[in-house]
Amino acid sequence: MISAIGFTGVIFIVDLLLTRKHRARLLKTAEGRIDNFKEKTDKTALEPGLIENSRAFLPILVAVFLLRSFLFEPFQIPSGSMKPTLEIRDFILVNRFAYGVRMPVTNEVIFPVAEPEQGDVIVFKPPHEPEKSFIKRVVAVPGDLVQYDYARKILRVNGAVVNKEFMGKTSDEVADYNLYKETLNGSEHLIYTNQGPALRSSYEWLPAAGVVVPEGKYFVMGDNRDNSQDARYWEGIRRVVQNDLANSGDNAWGFVDEDAILGKAFFIWMHWQGFYPSFGRAGLIE
């Protein structure tokens, strides 16, 4: 979009400063030499199509850019890592203003509004793939001690087990799940764990004693707990890829940086069902 704005903007400015004056001089000369020139000629048809289209689309592109940069941005859910909260092919809105006004390109906060809280669903650029946008739930904020028992699938924050209430069993084409109602920061939401024992990963990195979330960082997890590549594993990937088992990188990929957060996901506005849109899932994101 930035390139489109730049292209149309350059065409508009060049026309404004150079070619528009030249066209006006040509028209004035033609009016003096051709009888009834004004009556015979549609002046709007004399404007080149490229210039006309650039002038028409520039304000629209700028308005959309500002809307997406500072207010709301649409996203499509590409994976099942946030089931049952978000399904594949859900279309959501992200509040870009929730945590402050950010610079459009650098994403740096220039006017802070609030800080992410436990339980918020956020869209962000992950440390291991910064060219992509991920969506997960914040489970620990700066200063929190976070622990995760990979074998028993137990999450602890500041020494306390995060409460989850068993709601039943369910399944889809991917797996059989246990459905729980989890409570974070007084807010309830649903999560999945796979039925049966945990499938262990070589990228597990959180020690039994846990880690304290650094200032300006956030620890995030998917609601589909056994089918989500999230902060429980990113740092383990870094240590293997960079051959840094001694952790000289100081848990560099273990958290989401506050400047990598794009906004708070707050609304499902459509779900693409096969070949047509469905609005049955429309509503606020818990």
Describe the secondary-structure layout.
Elements: H1 2-33, H2 37-40, H3 49-70, E1 72-76, E2 90-95, E3 100-102, E4 109-112, E5 121-124, E6 134-140, E7 145-149, E8 154-157, E9 160-161, E10 164-171, E11 176-184, E12 187-194, E13 211-212, E14 217-221, H4 234-241, E15 256-257, E16 261-273, E17 276-278, E18 283-284
Antiparallel strand pairs: 1-2, 2-16, 3-4, 5-6, 5-16, 6-14, 7-8, 7-13, 8-9, 10-11, 11-12, 14-15, 16-17, 16-18
Helix pairs in contact: 1-3
* Computed CA radius of gyration, to the nearest angstrom: 26 Å
The number of distinct β-strands equals 18
Biggest sheet layout: 9 strands, antiparallel
Overall, the morphology is globular
Count of helical regions: 4
Instruction: Specify the CATH class of the largest domain.
Output: Mainly Beta
Succession of helices and strands? HHHEEEEEEEEEEEEEEHEEEE
The CATH topology annotation of the largest domain reads as: Umud Fragment, subunit A
The CATH architecture name of the largest domain reads Ribbon
Q: Can you identify the CATH superfamily of the largest domain?
A: Umud Fragment, subunit A
Helix content: 10-25%
Describe the structure.
It comes from Reinekea thalattae. It catalyses: Cleavage of hydrophobic, N-terminal signal or leader sequences from secreted and periplasmic proteins. Belongs to the peptidase S26 family. It is found in: Membrane. The protein is an alpha+beta fold. The protein contains four helices and 18 strands. The longest helix has about 30 residues. About 25% of the residues lie in helices and about 30% in strands. It has two domains: about 70 residues; about 210 residues, Umud Fragment, subunit A, CATH 2.10.109. A hairpin with a 4-residue loop joins β7 and β8. Strands 1, 2, 5, 6, 14, 15, 16, 17 and 18 form a nine-stranded antiparallel sheet that branches. It is globular, with a radius of gyration of 26 Å.
